Amino acid sequence: MALPSGNEPLLAAAPPVPAPVVVVSPQFCAKEVVPLTVTKKVKSLTGGDFTVTDPSGAVVLQFKGSVWSVRNRRVLVDAAGQPILSMHEKVLSMHNRWEVFRGDSSNASDLLFTVKRSTLLQLRTELEVFLAGNNTAQQACDFKLKGSYFDRDCAFYLGDSNTMIAQISRKYTASNVLLGKDTFNVTVFPDVDHVFVAVLVVVLDEVHSRDRNY
């Protein structure tokens, strides 16, 4: 399913998911489509801070961290600056593996989910997500991201099914180019945890940013 190449968020009627997709908290699941904009400051000494805004332009989430540390780490905070999640890149991981923990933590007991490439070499984007309870076996992923990052055409699915839970596209404007920003439109379907989806967008960008740096 190709995404439009325009600059507006996708607000078309979304197919219902079989059951609410709750990963971080039920409070982040809405009964209607949630349109978000994820903006990355490309030219940042911290390696690119990410800001998530709603359709009115209000900041609802921010990712802060640094790629200059031994372990690439970011902390997701809410509009009041309170930590919600922390994400860590696994050192020397061939599949660009990221671990996401509840709060500002790195304890195994706080692990929420793991994200990694499906295969080492890819012509098209494919990331797999394993929830904490499935992190050891990893026989079948809980969620999957498929599409083309460079063609601005990606979607999130329940496991290996065709049930879509969110879509993203990249947005180019003259002001963003001048300000050194990279912007993604995100459409989160009803009853889907929008914080979970926002984290996956950032992981997707981090994985491909590393590709551009090698």
UniProtKB/TrEMBL annotation:
<protein>
    <recommendedName>
        <fullName>Protein LURP-one-related 15</fullName>
    </recommendedName>
</protein>
<dbReference type="InterPro" id="IPR025659">
    <property type="entry name" value="Tubby-like_C"/>
</dbReference>
<dbReference type="InterPro" id="IPR038595">
    <property type="entry name" value="LOR_sf"/>
</dbReference>
<dbReference type="Pfam" id="PF04525">
    <property type="entry name" value="LOR"/>
</dbReference>
<comment type="similarity">
    <text>Belongs to the LOR family.</text>
</comment>
<dbReference type="InterPro" id="IPR007612">
    <property type="entry name" value="LOR"/>
</dbReference>
